[in-house]
Write a structure and sequence with these properties.
The complex is a heterotrimer of chains A (481), B (97) and C (300).
Chain A lengths: L1 H19 L4 H26 L2 E4 L10 E4 L1 H23 L7 H28 L3 H20 L4 H32 L7 H4 L3 H17 L9 H7 L2 H26 L4 H24 L3 H22 L9 H29 L15 H15 L5 H16 L2 H26 L16 H18 L2 H8 L4
Antiparallel strand pairs in A: 1-2
Chain B lengths: L1 H28 L3 H26 L3 H35 L1
Helix pairs in contact in B: 1-2, 2-3
Chain C lengths: L1 H21 L3 H21 L3 H25 L10 H23 L7 H8 L8 H9 L1 H20 L14 H22 L7 H18 L7 H29 L10 H25 L8
The chains are: A mainly alpha (481), B mainly alpha (97), C mainly alpha (300).
GO molecular function, one term (chain B): sodium:proton antiporter activity
Pfam families (chain B): PhaG_MnhG_YufB (PF03334)
Keywords (chain B): Membrane, Transmembrane, Transmembrane helix
């Protein structure tokens, strides 16, 4: 479990280093991110060869102490985080934070970004590895606070207001979640994840589960509790938006998936509620994305829709001991993380070059940030779910399982959501390709930046993941149920 | 001996509670900040001091008595200081207005 | 008699909370909030959790109140409350319904504590005899490490989020004699709480909060000038040392025993006291910095 220890501790230590020596913050950040990537790959490889791992912290067994659990699902999530982290670090190296107001502002952004981002990374790793509900609550506290900081970092009026709403929503969500955990302790006398199956049997336990999921719904920005999210994600700096949209909401979604897996059968009402809310969020987010005028807002609303899709997948998945449909949700989370991070980084680059992010103005000038547009297009293909991307494999698994059950309503909703996502994303892609000074032979092309490399790299990974989806699926298949 | 101390302690604590009640009453009835402050600081300090003495009579052991005295001293000190600070702040606000 | 007291306490808490919500004056709202903190601390005492009561009184009521008062002073414009009577009534009804649901849920399960027997069974191996400290610094030390990380993130937020700030001005000569008494006392009491934490209510959080109170007295008396790079730097380094040392201790234990945060046999008490000593200083420094606001000079 050395790798797991490294994953859980290293980001925090690096965060302290970055906060203590602001001038070296980027170096701390880059080193920690690269070691984090290596550790997560090693952990995944070890799980592939040796199966699940478990470590009792301090050698105290589970109900008394806290256990770290590294299984296939955790490994997939950790690798997803590590890959996105690497790209974000690359982007942050180039300082694509919008509206630089002189050197001082920039260095404060830089000094603030790294410790907050490293703390976010540490909290996510700790969350994915944790086998204890109260411990997970503490990781959510770190995650919520540092995400608020990442939102507020640009210091614009909009971002401060969005950050405040985010803070209020996040605190309310935490409180409800904590109440759920306390009730769970009252009901079954323990708070590790092994308590979840017992919760299903009693009324108090079911109320506890309901509260836990209500808290998670706020944190994951599930419709109709998404009100804080589009503003927060669209007003942050690009690297921060990518982190918030691709990773931070995944923490709550991961826990929802984990709990539904642990609970097994017997939570039908909860599953149906999740599926209905997910479908509603998918349609509503898509509709708002269709109407958005700014590129960042479109991408942010697309996150609302995609969260809806993932929640729908969690909701319609059957009892995991008989069906493997939950793997579709995990795969969709993975592909969304990669594609959405790529998309936010690409949008950040486009906005940086053009000086604005109005969709209608994308092809008005003779400046063409082609690499970023290309990355955006590939990410869009993955989000829509066209072959051969990872998004396609996820949706395929999902629809395949639904066809077996003959659940035609859900299939229709899924296809409708897919068509809508194709519609709103093609608003951007088609404008990038349409005629005008934009695509004329004489159009200027900005130079490559590390942000372009990061966006394109992530988008390509999302594409390649579809071809190599056997790897995450093998990891997920090995997850003990 | 212990009965005498008990009676003494109960009497002092009752008196102290009376002072605190008076302070609360003054806070409720008096019209402006300075007069409220005037009543509150004195009655409060006296009330807490009496309660501390009363409690000290009813406890055994030097450590408990010492920590009670410490409580009384801290309350008296912070009451006096904050009373002064509040009055000063309100004066400054009036000058500014 | 005690039941009457408990009932009064419960009604009082809700009443003061309502007063804090609906107070017209901002300072009155903060005052009501602080009173609520003390009543909640009392209720923790009644629930048999003196450790939590200490922390609640020191941090929940005392320091949070100080932070809120400071911010209330900063906000010049009084925000207008524009709640319709219906929304207030609706949220009141929802709250009452929810409370009823929770009450029913709580009373429907047997109230046999499941965790304390587990702790009692292994308490002898934990190195300390106060079960709360044993849980916080040994059995579930990983939780505590992450909570220190929460404090760290809060500190970073205060340092880097670019909002206009108010710097608390020294309050004048009258605070100096106050500080002369309070600061040494706070050091003494904090050391006592830290040491006592091993076998009685107390520990790093309570000791740190008390020490921070002394620190605030120093700041308000004008004796500690955090704008000076040396003083500010020392305080910031102290604040950051909490997570750094706790993390390093976790690494060291993993290297020594193979278990993260598993202390070597027979040395648990030394490790716990060492970590708690550093945490006390770090928590105090963090709280003082949270109160004071950013002291970082922007690197050129």
């Amino acid at each position: 479990m050395t790798e797991a220890y490294v994953l859980a501790l290293l980001p925090f230590l690096a965060a302290v280093g970055a906060a203590a020596t602001p001038r070296m913050a980027a170096i701390w950040g880059l080193c920690a991110t690269l070691i984090n990537l290596g550790a997560s790959i090693l952990l995944a490889a070890r799980i592939l060869s040796g199966g699940d791992m478990r470590a009792d912290l301090g050698d105290w067994p589970a109900p008394l102490g806290i256990s770290l659990v590294a299984d296939g699902l955790a490994a997939v999530m950790l690798s997803m985080t590590a890959i996105v982290a690497t790209a974000v670090a690359l982007q942050a190296m180039s300082w694509g934070l919008v509206q630089p107001r002189g050197g001082q502002q920039r260095s404060r952004l830089q000094a603030g970004f790294w410790p907050l981002w490293l703390a976010t990374l540490g909290a996510l790793n700790a969350l994915f590895l944790s086998g204890d509900l109260f411990n997970i609550y503490v990781t959510f506290e770190i995650l919520g606070l540092s995400a608020v900081g990442l939102t507020a970092l640009t210091g614009s009026r909009n971002s401060l207001r969005a950050a405040f709403d985010y803070l209020a929503a996040g605190l309310a969500g935490s409180l409800v979640f904590l109440l759920g955990v306390a009730l769970a302790y009252a009901a079954v006398g323990r708070v590790d994840l092994a308590a979840v199956p017992a919760l299903v049997d009693t009324a108090t336990g079911r109320l506890a589960l309901g509260l836990i999921f209500a808290g998670l719904a706020v944190k994951a920005a599930l419709f109709p509790l998404h009100f804080w999210m589009p503003a927060a994600h669209s007003s942050a700096a690009p690297a921060a938006s990518a982190v918030l949209s691709a990773l931070v909401v995944k923490g709550a979604l991961y826990l929802a998936l984990r709990i539904t897996i642990e609970a097994g059968a017997g939570i039908e009402v909860l599953r149906i509620a999740l599926a209905v809310l997910g479908a509603a969020g998918m349609l509503w987010g898509s509709w708002m994305a269709l109407r958005a005028e700014r590129l960042k807002l479109l991408v942010a609303y697309s996150t609302v829709a995609q969260i809806g899709l993932i929640t729908l997948a969690i909701g319609v998945a059957d009892d995991p001991s008989t069906s493997a449909m939950w793997q579709a949700a995990a795969l969709l989370m993975l592909s969304h993380a990669l594609a959405k991070a790529a998309m936010f980084l690409a949008v950040g680059r486009i906005a940086e070059e053009l000086g604005h992010d109005r969709i209608s103005g994308l092809n008005r000038t003779d400046l063409r940030p082609g690499v970023a547009e290309f990355a955006f297009a590939i990410a869009a293909v993955s989000l829509i779910g066209l072959p051969p991307t990872a998004g396609f494999i996820g949706k395929w698994l999902l629809i395949d399982g639904l066809i077996d059950r003959g659940a035609w309503v859900w299939i229709a909703l899924l296809l409708g959501g897919t068509a809508l996502s194709a519609a709103y994303l093609s608003r951007v892609v088609s404008r990038c390709l349409r005629g005008g000074p934009h695509v004329a032979p004489g159009a200027r092309r900005p130079e490559w930046r590390t942000g372009d490399v990061a966006a394109l790299g992530l988008a390509t990974t999302a594409l390649a993941l579809g071809l190599g989806s056997a790897l995450p699926l093998t990891l997920l298949n090995g997850t003990a149920l | 001996m212990s009965t005498v101390l008990d009676i003494l302690g109960t009497a002092m604590m009752t008196a102290g509670t009376g002072f605190l009640l008076m302070a609360a009453f003054a806070f409720w009835r008096l019209p402006d900040l300075l007069s409220r402050l005037h009543a509150l600081t004195k009655a409060d300090t006296a009330g807490v001091a009496l309660i501390v003495c009363g409690a000290a009579c009813m406890t055994s052991g030097i450590a408990a008595v010492l920590s009670l005295v410490l409580c009384g001293v801290l309350v008296a000190l912070s009451g006096a200081t904050t009373g002064h600070l509040i009055a000063q702040a309100s004066l400054e606000d009036e000058e500014r207005a | 008699m005690t039941q009457l007291f408990d009932a009064l306490l419960a009604v009082g808490i809700v009443g003061v909370a309502v007063a804090a919500l609906f107070a017209n004056d901002r300072f009155a709202a903060v005052g009501a909030f602080m009173v609520m903190g003390f009543l909640v601390a009392l209720s923790w005492v009644r629930l048999g959790a003196p450790d939590v009561a200490l922390a609640e009184a020191a941090i929940g009521a005392g320091l949070t109140g100080a932070l809120l008062l400071r911010s209330a002073r900063r906000l010049r414009v009084e925000p207008k409350m524009c709640q319709s009577r219906w929304s207030v009534a609706a949220s009141g009804l929802i709250s009452i319904g929810f409370a009823g649901l929770l009450y029913a849920a709580i009373t429907s399960v047997p109230t046999v504590p499941a965790y304390p027997p587990l702790v009692a069974e292994r308490l002898g191996e934990s190195g300390v005899s106060n079960p709360v400290t044993a849980v916080l610094l040994n059995f579930r030390a990983w939780d505590t490490l992450l909570e220190i990380a929460v404090l760290f993130v809060a500190l970073v937020l205060v340092i880097v989020v670019p909002v206009s700030r108010v710097r608390p001005a020294p309050l004048g000569e009258m605070v100096v004699p106050f500080a002369k008494v309070v600061v040494p006392l706070s050091v003494l009491i904090s050391g006592h709480l830290l040491w006592q934490g091993a076998d009685a209510p107390g520990g790093a959080f309570q000791a740190g909060a008390v020490l921070a109170g002394g620190g605030l007295a120093l700041v308000l008396a004008g004796a500690m000038r955090l704008k000076k790079p040396l003083q500010g730097g020392i305080l910031r380094a102290t604040a950051l040392s909490g997570l750094a040392v706790f993390g390093a201790a976790a690494v060291a234990t993993a290297a020594l025993t193979g278990h993260l945060l598993g202390y070597p046999d027979g040395q648990a008490k030394i490790w716990i006291l060492g970590i708690e000593a550093v945490l006390t200083l770090a928590i105090a420094a963090t709280l003082v910095l949270l109160f004071h606001g950013s002291v970082r000079r922007v690197p050129k």
